[in-house]
Amino acid sequence: MVNFNSVSHAFLLNRYRVLPLLLSTAVSSVAAPVYALQQSELEVYPPNWWAGMQNPEVELMIYGEGVADDTVSIDKGKAIINRVKALDSENYLFVTLDTSGARAQELTLTLTDNDGSYRRLHYSLEKRKEGSASRKGFGPEDAIYLIAPDRFANGNSANDNVDGYQDKADRQLKGSRHGGDIQGIVDNLDYIKSMGFTQIWTMPMLENAMDKYSYHGYSTTDYYTIDPRFGSNDAFLELSEHAKSEGVGVIMDMVLNHIGSNHKWLEDTPSKDWINNEGKFVGTTHKRESLHDPHAIESDIKGFSDGWFVPTMPDLNQRNPHLANYLVQNAIWW
Fold first, then answer.
1. Tens digits of per-residue pLDDT, 319-330?
2. Report field, pTM of the whole predicted structure over 0.90
3. CATH code, 4-23+34-132
4. Contact indicator for 311, 281 with CB cutoff of 8 Å
5. Which helix (H) or strand (E) holds 49?
6. Which CATH class is domain 136-252?
7. Measuring CA to CA, how many Å separate 261 from each of 88, 217, 275, 301?
């Protein structure tokens, strides 16, 4: 099992560059190559994957300064690079790995720039948990209890306010956070079970690093991190384990339609078509019937499907295959 608290999306890697350096002494002057070490930061999503998946391909989104024109090779481990694709931003590179027949292992990928400098990325293929492919989801036989975590129960007041997050707990201010968290749900599993519920559906608990109105969870700013005001990735796993021991399942609310406006994709967008309406706010028409009306015109369909809910929720364009892969792989990863 992955220790999620130790998982970092940012990998500090070494970029090496050969620099000529003239060393002068009283005896002689000698030209000698010196390897100058530069620290560089890359991020990779998903942060890890698994060997033995039914679909052997996984597409890595690699983010880092000037990475788009790098060539990629595997220096350690068994996997094949099927495709490498750069989009519009010079800071994203999409690398598709084929893990057919691969065992659990640590891969080492080398990204080499045009000037010969390179960065190494260490990527883990984990061993799948036994029986993971036969997990059962929820069905019509389940009674589902919907929870707004921030409004449910505060099990750990120490995480009500977290440094670096602007939206603070304030029960007197409309739209502010109240302090509910994952521990509050764990503490009340007996209560939920006693009412006859067999599944818990929580509103989203991924990071919502918004300036205000973040309590609902629908303005995702990091798809791979539980918001620290709810707890941690490990705390979410513990909730799942505790609930399972009580015979209760946990349904994760996946927000695939939009992100929060403080997501890094607004500062550096992978491609021009990553966000609908060229990244500019155009409100949705809310005409849901346009999707199933046989006489609907294209502008009505697009006005509903491509419009944003509000200016702080940029609408994602899932027609982009790399974005679609990102979202599907994120759901599988969780």
1. 999 999 999 999
2. no
3. 2.60.40.10
4. yes
5. strand 49-50
6. alpha beta
7. 20, 13, 11, 24
